[in-house]
Design goal:
about 425 residues, alpha+beta, BirA Bifunctional Protein, domain 2, Rossmann fold, 15 helices, about 40% helix, elongated, RNA-binding
RNA sequence: GAGGCUGUAGCUCAAUGGCGGAGCGCCUGACUGUGGAUCAGGAGGUCGUGGGUUCGACCCCCAUCAGCCUCCCCA
């Protein structure tokens, strides 16, 4: 037992009790996605490296993706994100799809990063996108989906907040305070970091980038302006719509939300754990989704949420359900080696009736078999020894109330079904 | 890539420069066809690894590996 080979760093193991939570999360995601009329899809886990090189920064892909050469000599990538795959899938059927397309997916992804709380190298991600609807209503719907999701999970607006901004608004304001176009990526980066540093540190960091003091002051004022959204028609309408859907409490304007990704163009948003400040999901509007993979450019809006951080937040807030991982409610005992066949036959008959039943796999002491049944959380134990076999009955022992009774073989299935097994 | 913390029984973790411990779990029995409780007994350890200091190291020192956390990064 000493020499257990350890799992690959950053990978995850799901024991049965973890799987109950995982399935539950999947169910919530599926339910919310379908409530808004979205359809599930899935892509390959392996993609050609060049698919990502076309869109994401090539350096990032090479540094943070799992890349290997397959036996045919091709450079293969364990998918680090879904959007390029989605872009290709849309491009392939662009002529036959009815737009706007509403699609969602929940599957595994891999990124070579330093594992820490809320982040692993192997994770599941919910991706949901509306493609081919360029207006602000689609943006509002996407934000509404995330809010509805939190509402469904029992997370209150004072626990999670969806912070919203608009890149074209920011571009306009940045131009007004004299930021030249070529410095925009640098300023975006600066804005993105504002929440991660204290004001003096951030200003010191900002000076290093060569930004003038005057511009920096104006930028600071901009980022702290809680009313800035009023200057954006889109944001104004989005907030009206979210209020109309009674989800406005989850949503707040924040000029500091800009998102790292270069391809976002309009609305951007990010949901955060209010207390921890950790980012739970993020998304926004992007143009030219399928242009890079050979289709006609089409606008989309979507977001992605990893399963690791949401589970951390749910656990912290006590919002995870308590689910039992009980394997089967019925355990059939084996009295002695000669009785094995009879017990096996009895168990098989129950399974034919659609009831999950465990056959104890050896003729151990009854004591031990009962203890095992108790440990795995079984509801009833069926005792089927020589006495019962001869009389054509089964002793049904109810573990929850310590009672037992004798039931003729012919009505056993009925009796058990009556007990909701 | 940088920093911090932790490595002792299957699990969670104590303690001490001089006999390796507890709780839980596991096995056996009390109880040969009746579970959760109780009692008794038992198994289980290269104290992460390698070196050093010392009469003597699980403990102190150095190195190394692993895990966790934070920063960086985050398509």
């Amino acid at each position: 037992m000493k020499e257990v080979i350890q799992k690959v760093k950053g990978t995850r193991e799901f024991y049965p009790e973890d799987m109950t939570i995982h399935h539950w999360l999947y169910e919530q995601i599926r339910a919310v996605s379908e409530l808004f009329g979205y359809q599930e899809y899935e892509g390959p886990y392996l993609e050609k490296l060049e698919l990502y090189a076309a869109k994401s920064g090539e350096e990032l892909v090479k540094e943070q993706s799992y890349v290997f050469t397959d036996r045919g000599g091709g450079e293969i990538c364990l998918r680090p994100e879904l959007t390029p795959t989605l872009a290709r899938m849309v491009a392939q059927r662009q002529q036959s799809f009815a737009f706007p397309l509403r699609l969602w997916s929940f599957g595994p992804f891999w990124r070579y990063e330093q594992p820490q709380k809320g982040r692993s190298r192997e994770f599941f991600q919910w991706n949901i996108d509306m493609i081919g609807a360029p207006g602000y209503m689609a943006d509002a719907e996407m934000i509404a989906i995330s809010a509805q999701f939190f509402k469904r999970l029992g997370l209150a607006p004072d626990q999670v907040q969806i912070l919203v901004n608009n890149r074209s608004l920011m571009d306009r304001k940045l131009a007004e305070i004299g930021v030249p176009e070529e410095r925009k990526p640098l300023i975006y980066r600066l804005i993105d970091r504002r929440d991660k540093m204290r004001e003096p540190e951030w200003k010191a960091y900002a000076s290093e980038t060569g930004i003038e003091t005057e511009t920096l002051d104006k930028l600071s004022a901009l980022l702290n302006d809680a009313q800035l959204w009023r200057e954006s028609e889109e944001l104004t309408q989005i907030f009206v719509l979210l209020d109309a859907m009674d989800l406005g409490a989850y949503v707040k304007f924040d000029a500091k939300i800009i998102r790292g990704l270069l391809y976002y163009t309009g609305t951007v948003f990010e949901a955060k754990d209010v207390e921890g400040g950790r980012s739970i999901l993020g998304g926004g509007r992007y143009e030219n989704l399928v242009g890079d993979v050979g289709g006609d450019p089409v606008s989309g809006v979507g977001f992605a949420m990893g399963d690791v951080m949401i589970k951390v937040v749910l656990e912290k807030l006590g919002a995870l359900p308590i689910l039992d991982a009980q394997p089967a409610k019925i355990v059939v005992t084996v009295f002695d080696p000669q009785g094995m066949k009879a017990s096996a036959c009895l168990t098989a008959a129950l399974r034919d009736q659609g009831m999950a039943a465990i056959l104890y796999p050896e003729a151990a002491k009854l004591n031990k078999q009962l203890k095992y049944a108790d440990r795995i959380g079984a509801k009833v134990v069926l005792l089927y020894g020589p006495d019962e076999v001869e009389a054509g009955v089964v002793t049904v022992k109810d573990l929850s109330n310590r009672t037992q009774r004798t039931v003729p073989l012919g009505v056993l299935a009925e009796e058990l079904k009556a007990m909701d097994l």
